[in-house]
Amino acid sequence: MKMRSEGIEPNGFTFVAVLSACIRVLELELGFQVHSSVIKMGFLDSVFVTNALMGLYGKFNGGLGLVLNLFEEMRQRDVASWNTVISSLVKEGMYEKAFEFFRSMQEIGPLKADYFTISAILSGCEGSIDLMKGKEVHAHAIRVGLEGNLSVNNALIGFYTKCGSVSDVVTLFESMPIRDVITWTEMITAYMEFGLVDLAVEVFNKMPEKNCVSYNALMAGFCRNGEGLKAVKLFIRMVEEGLELTDFSLSSVINASALLDMCMRCGRIADAEKMFNMWPSEQDSSVVCTSMLCGYARNGQPDEAISFFP
């Protein structure tokens, strides 16, 4: 608005910059206003501006229709155009439609799928648990020379974790020329998914660098595999080391409290007591205290149950 009041008209670069800012801060209302200005000033013919508009609408639930409309109206498209519509379809769970667009992209030419295309469509194959389609995409990645791309390989690990076997994942991991913290974290998740807790811990300990996501993956894996005590210990370690605690970290601890309750219900009182004694003091303990109280009462230990009353 300030530009126009000073007699300076926005151009395509201006619109892309403003729309990129709207995407970063998830400002849809301003995005609508910019879209209106784009139409009035005739910039919808700009591939970059329309891509930015699709990128904005693709971030919001219910925005897929706008993405598809913009895409269909484009006179020219580039790889980013196709990537945006494919990733938007995957985000909305429309996996078969996303795969149709992926195939159309290859058939129309001369555009070639890039690492973002492959990663997005692999997420769709993972979401639909479609092993054959995922292998087809993997083969395509090899044909177009993306078999060594880090992002593609990370996406493949996630895909084979959900749809393949542990040997598929290990073979891929060992063949990767480059690995990052995402790669190592995906391996932790993979081993935990296959119930190989010790191997997941081994990978965690070998990681050159770790972040809160790595810790969360290990902690969630412990909970999924009935290792609540280890999950609580890891949470305490995160607190002591001053690591960032995300909502995911806290939900994993909540899952650990559910495991404590399960131990009490199954008569595994010693395990429940270990978990309770290690419960972080700064976390709300009302739920676990109730689980302990009820568990003691259920297992014929009234004196221990009474000790939980103030």
Write up this protein.
The protein has helices at residues 2-5, 12-25, 28-40, 47-57, 64-73, 79-91, 95-108, 115-127, 131-143, 150-163, 166-175, 181-193, 197-206, 212-224, 228-240, 247-265, 269-277, 286-298, 302-306. With 310 residues, the protein is an all-alpha fold. It has 3 domains: 1-76; 77-178, Serine Threonine Protein Phosphatase 5, Tetratricopeptide repeat, CATH 1.25.40; 205-310, no CATH class. Helix 5 (64-73) packs antiparallel against helix 6 (79-91) and helix 14 (212-224) packs parallel to helix 16. It starts with a helix and ends with a helix. This is Pentatricopeptide repeat-containing protein. One of its GO terms (molecular function) is RNA binding. PPR repeats lie at residues 78-112, 180-210, 211-245. It comes from Corchorus olitorius. It holds the Pfam family PPR_3.
The chain-level structural class is: mainly alpha
Strand content: under 5%
Please report the number of helical segments: 19
The backbone outline, from C-alpha atoms, is globular
The structural domain count equals 3
**N-to-C SSE string, H for helix and E for strand:** HHHHHHHHHHHHHHHHHHH
Biggest pleated-sheet summary = none
On the 0 to 100 scale, the average pLDDT is 85
